[in-house]
Amino acid sequence: MIDLAIIGGGPAGLTAGLYATRGGIKNVVLFEKGMPGGQITGSSEIENYPGVKEIKSGLDFMEPWQEQCFRFGLKHEMAEISMVSKQGDIFTITQSDGKVVEAKAVIFAAGGRPKRSGVKGEDVFWGRGVSTCATCDGFFYKGKDVAVLGGGDTALEEAIYLSRICNKIYLIHRRDGFRAAPVTIQHVKENPKIEIITPTIIEEIKGDNSGVTGVTIKNIQSGAVQDLAVFGVFVFVGYDVNTQILKQPDGSMLCECDEWNSIKVDLSMKTSVPGLFAAGDVRVQASKQVVCAAGDGATAALQAIAYLEHH
């Protein structure tokens, strides 16, 4: 039986493994079907992680994490997990090949992924002008014009954030109304740097070898087509958390989640199920930043150590 199982090998999972093993837990296994690192390995540039002054690609940035985090005895099981459940005080971890492993405690850090819009050119310029993180990439467009696609809280909040950095923000949404909080909508409408363009879709993202140079938009009511010169496109059309493996045979979730299936935790990363902790992008109100995910992982590991000591 495993003392502690960690599901997910991104910054949260790796940090949890480091703190758990260094903290004295002997049998800690990290389940990640590929090489650890997480979705941040797909980022072209990282320059906002404290203490790392060089600008690195996500792949280069995460490379030393693996060596450091496995130094104290963390084991890596290259396996895909199909379900996590709990019977009594023991967690059952079922792999996609049918193998079943038992664990005394679990840290769930399987992460998530921003939804893509499917707009023509989005995949071509992904990471070269198309982004899903204003905090990560907004600085690269300082003083420039950018477009934000989306109509929820995240889209509007990120547009406001970008207005502190960029010259002009075109906020593009397919509906006339927004799904964000009224106070956020009001702040957007009062911001002189943000131009609201509705009900409109982006038909194509255009660019060249240097990256994005503009978008073609279409008003879905009038059919009018227009080209906008922008250097960046920020897409906020939703986020999928990888919590589907917590779904039980009866359709319920193993622990309490919100309406989007993000896991509800307290400040200690404890879920509603004793011995189950969640860290990183899978939890509610996650900042979706590497440094925050790492902090979650450390907190979850420290709490897991305390839980195992008392159980």
From TrEMBL:
Organism: Helicobacter equorum
A molecular-function term among this protein's GO annotations: thioredoxin-disulfide reductase (NADPH) activity
Free-text comment on the cofactor: Binds 1 FAD per subunit.
GO terms (BP aspect): removal of superoxide radicals
InterPro entries (alphabetical): FAD/NAD-bd_sf (IPR036188), FAD/NAD-binding_dom (IPR023753), Ferredoxin-NADP_redctase_2 (IPR050097), Pyr_nucl-diS_OxRdtase_2_AS (IPR008255), Thioredox_Rdtase (IPR005982)
Essential cofactor(s): FAD
Reactions the enzyme catalyzes: [thioredoxin]-dithiol + NADP(+) = [thioredoxin]-disulfide + NADPH + H(+)
Protein name, entry field: Thioredoxin reductase
Ranges where the FAD/NAD(P)-binding domain occurs: 3-297
Family assignment from sequence similarity: Belongs to the class-II pyridine nucleotide-disulfide oxidoreductase family.
Subunit organization: Homodimer.
SUPFAM superfamilies: FAD/NAD(P)-binding domain
Gene Ontology CC entries for this record: cytoplasm
Entry keywords, A to Z: Disulfide bond, FAD, Flavoprotein, NADP, Oxidoreductase, Redox-active center
Gene3D superfamilies recorded: FAD/NAD(P)-binding domain
Record Pfam families: Pyr_redox_2 (PF07992)
This enzyme's EC code(s): 1.8.1.9
